[in-house]
Specification:
Layout lengths: L1 H25 L12 H9 L1 E5 L3 H5 L20 H10 L4 E7 L28 H12 L2 E6 L12 H17 L5 E3 L7 E2 L6 E2 L10 H11 L4 E3 L7 E2 L14 E2 L28 E2 L2 E6 L17 H10 L6 E6 L9 H17 L8 E5 L21 E2 L6 E21 L9 E8 L2 E9 L5 E19 L5 E8 L22 E3 L6 H4 L11 E3 L4 E18 L10 E9 L6 E7 L10 E21 L7 E3 L1 E5 L1
Parallel strand pairs: 1-2, 1-12, 2-3, 3-4, 4-7, 8-11, 11-12
Antiparallel strand pairs: 5-6, 9-10, 13-15, 14-19, 15-18, 15-19, 16-17, 16-18, 20-22, 21-26, 22-25, 22-27, 23-24, 23-25
Helix pairs in contact: 4-5, 4-9, 6-7, 8-9
This protein binds beta-L-fucopyranose.
Length: 639
């Protein structure tokens, strides 16, 4: 009996020993490669989709940037319903919301102790309201994550531009980080247009963006009070801007990046060489993935005249594929109406988009295939991990195998139009590139290629393909750690054509005038109904149009050049009319807010209808390093 027990002990210890060495083999995971994400960033990657909500006095002013002088009494929504807004975001498949607690106009949407210009001065809820709380609670009720955007630029605060404002701003962050639960994002931007109300001074205040906000110390407050919040800015500590407000990253977009400052000074928000924000840097020193921000509407705030320009489900899905599908996140702007709810079309579009995503990803066809690999690392690294919907279990190769392939054999041919791949990013972004082949007519044919796999890579094929065998060739400088393969068939998406307002004048009988003969052909590009061509000038700061006869109009549209850069876009304008082309009257002047980041069609609504034969759009300030550099893609005139 004793012996038997001893034997059992021996056997048991032998077993234990062998399990231990087996376990050791199993945990002989590939070593991480290059920069890797933090726990906080992993959570952010898993979130993938969230919405940013702009609802401030600027909504009631029908503007994109408030100047800082709005009377708080205008902020008084009559049908405010945070659950309607947050619920609509949830139905779109979004997992969090970021609320704009203070935009550039400086109005604090919570009862802050740091500045008088806040929600307690508004008549809403008799000055007892707190919008940040409303959105926090709605997010909680809907099971959504909650984040906050507090604009550093403050066009109301009299102290803006002095060191005293930095203390005020930091105290605002302290309040927001201490009283509204756990935040998943702390959102900042680099916008700084210079001029503003500033306590009535109405002047231009320039700050040195590289030093003024002392970001590293300011963000130390975030880290201390909200350790789980990912910090976003054009270059945040955790998440970077994609470099445009279209939500789209380039084909190749690495989660790693080497930050480039300006000259000798280090990169800081609002002060950096932004040429690699979209692409990132292969083997970059830091893991800072991108967020693609884009609004559901052309602007970030609600404008009734954009009700017919709500993005279609098709557009949203394309953006999704270029943001989430390129290893980043999608941050979609929602714009409540002055009543305090989302416009019904916005609600419907979100619901349809959510339905589409569910439909697309309902069934992974790769789960039907037998998957084999040219090399499999010893341990729990088999190909079964590739279809288990777990981002962190993975197929891996031996340390010395840097090129390998996996093959999918289907019992019955599979029809698919999207390929999705993920790496286990806990081990870094290892893969350089992949090639996908299908077996057709007796030989392998190249179907698709991609670089920058990372957290997620969606390859959308031009047409659906049917194949009974597929192979993915993977190339890396180290062993491979691929976690997921997905194959999906995209359903046909109903295309809902966007209506033109129908109010634009036809431009065929228009001409340009008051310009040298040699430049006329060029200037006509501003009235050729072609958004891709533009009039560019370094000598004129305006363009005159002759309608051929007197016409009545109530609004004018200006579309800046639509190529990659916003250079030459008008920031400050004057609009003049004339009946003889000699004597001009100013009918409107103002700023095209946010045009540098979001160069969309700008609409100037006149206070009343005017009647004139000639129109002059004059640029007082453009996005440009040179004087007088002006670009106009198109001018519209609305009845
Ligand atoms: C930008 C701001 O200037 C816009 O107004 C908007 O808030 C957008 C989300 O960020 O930087």
């Amino acid at each position: 009996m004793k012996l038997f027990t001893r034997q059992r002990v021996l056997i048991l210890s032998a077993l234990l020993f062998s399990t231990a060495s087996y376990a050791q083999n199993n945990t002989n995971a590939p070593l991480p490669y290059g920069a890797i994400p933090t726990e906080r960033q992993l959570k952010w990657h898993e979130t993938e989709m969230y919405c940013i909500i702009h609802f401030t006095p600027t909504t009631f002013q029908n503007k994109e940037w408030g100047y800082g002088d709005a009377d708080p009494s205008i902020f008084n929504p009559t049908k405010f319903n945070a659950l309607q807004i947050v619920g609509a975001a949830k139905s779109g498949g979004f997992k969090g919301i970021v609320y704009v607690a203070k935009h550039h106009d400086g109005f604090a949407l919570w009862p802050t102790k740091t500045a008088a210009y806040n929600i307690s001065e508004s008549p809403w809820k008799a000055g007892k309201g707190d919008m940040v709380r409303e959105f926090q609670l709605a997010a909680k009720q809907e099971g959504m994550k909650f984040g906050i955007y507090c604009s550093p630029w403050d066009r109301n605060n009299p102290n803006y531009g002095t060191p005293a404002y930095l203390d005020i701003y930091r105290n605002q962050l302290r309040e927001l980080y201490s009283n509204y639960g756990d935040l998943f994002m702390s959102w900042h931007d680099g916008a700084n247009g210079g001029d503003g109300y500033y306590g009535g001074k109405k002047e231009k205040r320039k700050v040195d963006q590289a030093t003024y906000y002392d970001w590293l110390n300011t963000w130390a407050i975030t880290r201390k009070l909200q350790p789980g919040a990912s910090i976003f800015s054009d270059i945040g500590l955790d998440v970077r801007w994609v470099g445009n407000e279209k939500g789209m990253s380039p084909e190749t977009s690495w989660s790693t990046i080497d930050l480039k400052g300006n000259g000798d000074r280090p990169a800081m928000p609002g002060f950096l060489d932004d040429s690699n924000l979209g692409s990132g840097t292969r083997n970059g020193k830091q893991w800072i993935p991108f967020e693609g921000d884009v609004s559901l509407r052309p602007g970030w705030f609600y404008h009734a005249d954009q009700n017919d320009q709500v993005k279609t489900v098709e557009e949203l899905f394309n953006i999704y594929c270029h943001s989430v599908g390129h290893g980043g996140a999608l941050d979609l702007g929602l714009s409540p109406t002055p009543e305090g709810i989302l416009y019904q079309k916005d609600v419907n579009t979100l619901a349809e988009f959510g339905k589409l995503l569910k439909q697309v990803f309902a069934h992974n066809l790769a789960t039907e295939a037998k998957i084999s690999a040219s090399n499999i690392r010893k341990g729990p690294y088999g190909t079964n991990n590739l279809t288990d919907a777990d981002r962190y279990s993975y197929w891996a190769t031996d340390d010395n195998v840097h090129q390998a392939s996996v093959q999918l054999d289907f019992k019955k041919p599979a029809r698919f139009s999207m390929i999705q791949l993920r790496e286990n990013i806990k081990l870094g972004q290892r893969i350089d590139s992949i090639g996908v082949d299908i077996f057709k007519n007796g030989h392998w044919t190249l179907l698709a290629q991609a670089t920058s796999i990372g957290a997620n890579r969606i390859i959308r094929l031009a047409h659906a393909e049917t194949a009974s065998k597929m192979r993915i060739r993977v190339y890396a400088p180290v062993s491979i750690a691929l976690s997921e393969i997905g194959l999906y068939l995209e359903p046909a998406i109903k295309t809902t054509a966007k209506l033109k307002t129908g109010n634009e004048y036809n431009k065929t009988s228009w001409s340009v005038t008051g310009i040298a003969q040699s430049k006329i052909a060029d200037a006509k590009k501003a009235i050729d109904n072609n958004d891709t061509t533009f009039f560019e000038t370094k000598t004129n700061n305006h363009l005159d149009i002759d309608f051929g006869k007197q016409i009545d109009f109530s609004a004018v549209g200006y579309l800046p050049a639509q190529d990659k850069s916003a250079e030459g876009a008008i920031e400050k304008y004057e609009l003049l009319i004339s009946n003889d082309g000699k004597k001009w009257d100013v009918v409107a002047e103002g700023e095209f807010s946010n045009i540098k980041a979001n160069p969309i069609l700008q609409r100037i609504s006149l206070t009343s209808k005017v009647s004139a034969r000639y129109l002059r759009l004059s640029a007082k300030q453009t996005v440009s390093k040179e004087n007088n550099f002006l670009r106009i893609a198109e001018i519209e005139v609305y009845r």
